[in-house]
Write a structure and sequence with these properties.
Number of helices of chain A: 9
Number of domains of chain B: 1
Largest sheet of chain B: 5 strands, parallel
Oligomer: heterodimer
Shape of chain B: globular
CATH architecture of chain B: 3-Layer(aba) Sandwich
Structural class of chain A: mainly alpha
Low-confidence stretches of chain B: 173-185
Shape of chain A: elongated
Mean pLDDT of chain B: 82
Low-confidence stretches of chain A: none
Distance between the termini of chain B: 29 Å
Strand order of the largest sheet of chain B: 4-5-6-1-7
Strand content of chain A: under 5%
Distance between the termini of chain A: 24 Å
Largest interface: A-B, 24 and 31 residues
Order of helices and strands of chain A: HHHHHHHHH
Largest sheet of chain A: none
Helix content of chain A: over 70%
Helix content of chain B: 40-55%
């Protein structure tokens, strides 16, 4: 069963490689939106440094949403969803495998892209490890909640519009703690409590979101 | 068993129910005396389902498309490709295949599932005469080993000694009741 889990992940990674433009789209969106802020807010280093955590987190949140409607949508359209559900593994495991693939193809590249962006916005180097640790946990949360949202709106008309409305409010705790941790680190305050709360959020979402997503997939296949 | 009936009679829906993908509106579905919906994953490993759609990813090659399912059913990829005459196409991306070749790939996936129950929704759709013969061989071999086949069709399939089941059309009273239930649900 674990072998099949990784086989689904591997298949999705291969698909992501073959459709490189779709995969890179989210990352480029992240970089472009984040670079718009200095242009809109003016070049004051003090202001940008102050706003950097929020800018990076909000842009990462929105960028992670982009590939979500295709995550299960493409499978439903070409009939692959039926075949995935008939693999003989629980639907929740199929959902978790797809969510893992989403994290590997969107979350990890977002992490990497966040480093040059943070430097560009003038975030002190001492805050970078906290930024990465926070985004690491945060991107896991985004993939889990996003995957759950994507499976729930699957098959609905205008699902692409519903998805952010459903997902973004649920992801706000991650945004609050993630951005607060960076803020604390750059001003020298203790940042551990924020990251611990974020980790607790991951621990809660990890078992629950795949279950909900699996139920969503079953409902969509009916 | 061969399911026939006019368009909209519910043939495909019945197959999806049998596969455990859809819950029946009423009644129970039993497999070896156990309810299918008690453990759908277990039932899924007993079933090979071929839907209307071929469920192939255009960016992946024939072998890559099938690899996941070969792993799930512990099927022999080489034998399945050979049975459907796909060996020369094995490394072609699925987007380059014709409709009949895609159907053959989807049929190869059914072979790879190594499941006792085959549920085939119009398996001969888009196949040429040669491929229909291959399909006939595959069906015969599966039945020889004690496997079950339930197929829907509008055209004669290369099968002998089959049990036909004709579903009533949408104009018949039974189907009217069915649609009534659908609307109620």
């Amino acid at each position: 069963m674990i072998g099949l889990f990784w086989a689904i992940v591997g298949r999705d990674l291969r698909l992501a490689l073959r459709h490189g433009a779709d995969t890179m789209g989210a990352i480029l969106f992240f970089i472009v939106t984040a670079t718009l802020f200095p242009l809109a807010l003016g070049p004051s280093p003090e202001l940008l440094r102050h706003m950097a955590p929020g800018i990076i987190w909000v842009c990462a949140l929105l960028a992670a949403l982009l590939p979500l409607d295709r995550l299960f949508g493409a499978e439903l359209e070409d009939g692959s969803l039926d075949q995935l559900l008939l693999l003989g593994v629980p639907a929740a495991l199929v959902a978790l495998a797809k969510i893992t693939a989403h994290w590997l193809t969107t979350g990890i590249p977002l992490l990497l892209a966040a480093v040059p962006l943070a430097t560009m916005l003038g975030l002190p180097a001492s805050a970078l490890p906290v930024l990465l640790a926070g985004l690491f946990l945060g991107s896991v949360v985004l993939s889990l909640i996003g995957g759950m949202g994507a499976s729930i709106v699957l098959g609905a008309r205008r699902g692409g519009v519903l998805l952010p409305l459903l997902t973004l409010p649920l992801a706000t705790p991650a945004l609050i703690f993630g951005a607060a941790a960076i803020d604390a680190a750059s001003t020298g305050l203790p940042w551990q409590p924020d990251l611990e709360l974020l980790a607790a959020f991951v621990a809660g979402a990890l078992p629950l979101c795949p279950l909900a997503a699996g139920a969503g997939l079953r409902a969509a296949a009916e | 068993m061969l399911l026939t009936g006019p368009n909209g009679a519910g043939k495909s829906t019945l197959l999806r129910v049998l596969a455990g993908l859809r819950k029946p509106d009423s009644g129970q579905l039993l497999w070896h005396g156990e309810s299918v919906f008690a453990d759908r994953a277990l039932h899924a490993s007993q079933v090979a389902y071929l839907g209307h759609q071929d469920a192939l990813k255009p960016g992946l090659t024939v072998t890559e498309n099938l690899a996941l399912f070969a792993r799930a059913g512990q099927g022999d990829m080489q034998a399945a490709l050979e049975a459907m005459d796909l060996l020369p196409l094995a490394n072609l991306p699925a987007r380059l295949l014709s409709a009949g070749q895609k159907r053959r790939t989807a049929l190869a996936r059914v072979l790879l599932a190594n499941a006792p129950l085959w549920l085939l929704d119009e398996p001969s759709l888009g196949l040429d005469a040669n491929a229909i013969t291959l399909l006939g061989h595959a069906l015969a071999a599966h039945r020889q080993q004690g496997g079950l086949v339930i197929a829907t069709t509008h055209v004669p399939l290369p099968l002998t000694n089959v049990q036909p089941l004709a579903l009533p059309g949408a104009g018949d009273s039974a189907a009217d009741t069915f649609y009534q239930q659908e609307e109620d649900a």
